[in-house]
Amino acid sequence: MSRIWIDIDVLFSRSSVEICPPSVLRVVLEICQALQVSASTQVGFVRRKGGPQNWVCVDWSDVQDLPAVTRYRAGALHLTGRQVSTTKPSKISEGASFTQTNGVADVLKTQLQVLRAGSGWFGAAARYSLQRWQDNRARRTALSKTAHVPVRRHRASVLSGSSLREVVRPGDLFLALGSTWEREDYPQTVRWLRDVLRVRFGLFVHDLLPVYRQEWFLKNKTSRYKTWHQTILPLVDQVFVDGVDAASEVTTYLAQISRPLLQPIVTVPLGTAPTSTDAHLPVQERGEIGVEGEYVLCVATLEPRKNHELLLRVWRRLLQVMPATTIPKLILVGEVGWLVSDLMQQLENSDWLNGYVQLVSAPSDAQLEHLYRNCLFTVAPSLAGGVSLPVLESLHYGKPCLASHALAGNVSDQGLVKHFDPLNLHDALRVIRNAIEDRHNLKQWAKEIENRFKPVSWRQSVETILRHTV
Amino acid sequence: MAAYTIWIDMEDIFQYAAHNRRPSGIQRQVYEILQVLQGCISRPEDVRIGYVRKGADGDPACIVSAQDVENLFASLADDEIASVSGLSRKTPSSKQARRKNFSLQSVNAKAVAFRQFNSLRHALIRKFEQMPEPVGRPLLRAGTLQMRVLRMIRDLRNQSAVRHSASGENVPVRIPQSGRGSSAPLPRPHGMKPDDIFLVMGAAWADAAFGERLRAVRKSYGMKPVLLIYDLIPLTCPEWFPPQVVSTFSAWLENVIPQCSDIMVISHATKKDVQDFLVQRSLHLNQAPWVVPMGGGFGDMSVATSGPDAPGLPPAKSYVLFVSTLEARKNHILMFQVWARLLREKAYTDVPTLVFAGRPASMVEDLMQQMENTDYLDGKVRLIREPSDEELRCLYKNCLFTVFPSLYEGWGLPVTESLLFGRPCVASNVTSIPEAGGDFARYFDPYDFETVYDTICRTIEDREGLKAWEDQIRKNFRPTPWSDTAKAILQSCEVAHQSSQPTLRRAG
Description:
The complex is a heterodimer of chains A (470) and B (508).
Chain A: E1 4-7, H1 9-12, H2 22-38, E2 43-48, E3 55-58, H3 60-63, H4 67-74, E4 78-80, H5 100-147, H6 164-167, E5 173-176, H7 186-196, E6 200-204, H8 209-212, H9 219-232, E7 238-241, H10 244-256, E8 266-267, H11 283-286, E9 295-299, H12 308-321, E10 329-333, H13 341-349, H14 351-355, E11 357-361, H15 365-373, E12 378-380, H16 389-396, E13 401-404, E14 418-420, H17 425-437, H18 439-452, H19 458-467
Chain B: E1 4-9, H1 11-19, H2 25-37, E2 47-53, E3 62-64, H3 66-76, H4 79-84, H5 95-100, H6 102-130, H7 133-163, E4 197-200, H8 210-219, E5 224-229, H9 233-236, H10 243-256, E6 262-265, H11 268-280, E7 290-291, H12 301-306, E8 319-323, H13 332-345, E9 353-358, H14 365-373, H15 375-379, E10 381-385, H16 389-398, E11 402-404, H17 413-420, E12 425-428, H18 433-437, E13 442-444, H19 449-461, H20 463-476, H21 482-499, H22 502-507
Parallel strand pairs in B: 1-2, 1-4, 4-5, 5-6, 6-7, 8-9, 9-10, 11-12, 12-13
Antiparallel strand pairs in B: 2-3
């Protein structure tokens, strides 16, 4: 029986969000976990140890403690929003001359805040170093287990730490699940796999946006991304994608560079929620999230494609047209990515829209689930993108989702999502305002989701992959 | 009828010149109005014009000579013009030029120091941003707060400069030997009379202590303040401004508006914003704000059509022009997105170049990076930094048409300028912009990308329609001369002056 070898190098590296977006990492992890559970005898995990032909096996149990994995369990919650202690410049009232002492006091107070923020750096730096040290130790432990002479027997009779060359058999599949484009010598690996080891090569393509929308990515990423895919795609025996958009991007690109596709593209349905969160968040932890009152949720890394600026404008308009007490907060969940410094500046300038906007970074899976379960509805104003995990998660947790047209056309949302034009403020405002005001309708919609939505487990994703490989 | 003098406050422009080399919209407009103001006075024997600025010795208003004002604007004018008129700013040759340029040089030195400080600040911000987020965050916050402290100290110093002689400004004006003290009326500088007009046309809100100065001018000198308001954008859209600016501006307005005898605005859109503000803050005015017609054009327009083209600019009829400082509010990103889509959907050769003419300012870092990421859309976007007046004329003259997608304006001068040069303008339809463009510009909704794209696409494709549109502008467009603006301002001053003389008015 042929086996699947999965490249999990990305879990060992410490890549930035731009190189390895959280959504990609999520897919890699969930598929690995599901494979490990449902087909442990057929699957092996490998990572690179040196040159492009030097790959070693890794025991899945050693991966469990890697920071890339543990952060979903533990989280590192951080809240950003309105500053509690905003210094108001003393008001100059008519008639009374500007009281200088007051001004000086203000200056001193603010200067004190500077010192406090500055001294906060030492703590932050110490915490960060400690975190890094722990991460590194976990990584080193995982690495040392695989680096030395094989010590343990894998259930699949694959020796942890043994070289891929020794255990692989012709006809096996080597699967790259994501963010492998970072390695420029990957073509050498693929050639070695196919020509020397007679192993088939499978690639999961999440999107080719850096090729088509290069304004959203830094230049060195786009050029590397382009070259990498140009060389690799013609060598791929089996391309996997998560939806029709990615599939059409791949076929268009191959046509553009006049290269053939070796096998029809296989669409893998994505799981609708993280597998790891079975338990509800303990009561005492709920308060610690620090999000109170009604809120609308938007889960997305802050980067230009995700179009957070539209939401900022919609909420600004809502503040103009609706009574302040009836407007829910906007909770953004995600890491601050790239090309959003002006957006962040606008949020700061407007005092986080007078406190109506909050940013939640790095919640654990349990905290994220809690945020989903308690929101009014979710919004996804992305400018491009295909299948979006947050949209599926929203439906999975029974929450209505307003998504951009760019995310329409996918069967995975089962027709339960309402759409708007992400480039039209009026349309977005109308749809969002409607959802806020018409609670009855919102309830009906949530009920319909509860009744009709069929969750997809990551096991189903894995079954599709297995069907096309083994 | 009693004779009176209109004292025009130049303080903000002196301050502006200390930090900037080129005039922005407001300084230009003030300059154009001042050029024609004297000529528009109907009774020159009764109405005189004078200039004032803040004195170095705690004087709220001391007189500046017309020559000083001229020099001030010369310092803000183009390098080319300065060199043509024999005033080389960097190396003054003659003794006279050296003396004349003394203040300008120190102004320049200050501007250079300011720029160096800013580049250092930006370098630090970038450095902090590159750090891992948890480590960089406290440093960024400390930095932001430190900047706030510096601004507060600067404001404090400015305030104290009104009452104490702490100002280190090199004031090229006579300093009156007047005493100070807010209760006793100050001895008025020679030439000033009660019921004279104190006209504020510039960006006086930069000075947080302006309210007190105005109070001194009003109470101690008995002058009538008349204020020209351009826009209230820091209040309506605070996200585009540092919080300090917003709160200063807000306090400034609340403080200054009740003291003014008359308020003028430059557009109906601004009038509405002012009225909304008054309602919101429960303030009351004796009469609704006047809308003053805005003139158009800059410098000598006849040179525009006759002179040779400035070198190094894109070839004629190969580009679409967008004249504006690059900042978030002006919405350059929208045009960038339109052009990105044009290039995705059309042949490269069918797409005209998009020319941004202006200086990158606040909150366009990400736009600049996006342009860089695409190599300025493979050369289809060009950023002509800080164009001179001459270059601007050429750019206008030779463009296919202009675009102006701004999200908020008090007026929209680039739209008027485009029409003055006979160039069609496709502009956004929000706030005051339709007032500036009238029936001669075409409009799109900047919040609806699809219509923006369609409008621009059609304008690019339909060259015959563009020609007809140009002809229509040439034939029918009647620009508002700056003299209309000046006359309206004079009228406003007249009304403010008369309101203080009930007996005379009744007699008249």
